[in-house]
Amino acid sequence: MRKVLSIFDLVLIFSLTGGSLLGLIYMDRLIPGGDSVRIEVNGELKGIYPLNEDRIVELNGPLGKTIVEIRDKKVRVVDSPCPNKFCIHQGSVSKGSIICLPNRVVIIIGGEQGIDAITG
Fold first, then answer.
1. Predicted local distance difference test score (pLDDT) of residue 4
2. pTM for this one?
């Protein structure tokens, strides 16, 4: 026996799909950018670097050395000892963050440390 979708089901499906598409379109505006890069290893601040100056930063984490490149106002992880290398596959970013959980390296573009959200 086949059930037919009601008008409410269709409205719900189109509303959720439309909301998701709008969220993807405006995601770029929601993620803050900045002019600096904040790098932490194991919760300890290792440095805040300007995004407009090209440089290579070598960081020692629990698993070994992670190499971060700042170039053309973008940041990327060049090499890391983590097993899956998700941080490397993320590529160059100009907004948001790159996180290498196994080696405990956090790279935040914008460099500001503030409250993103409050939960209760």
1. 84
2. 0.69
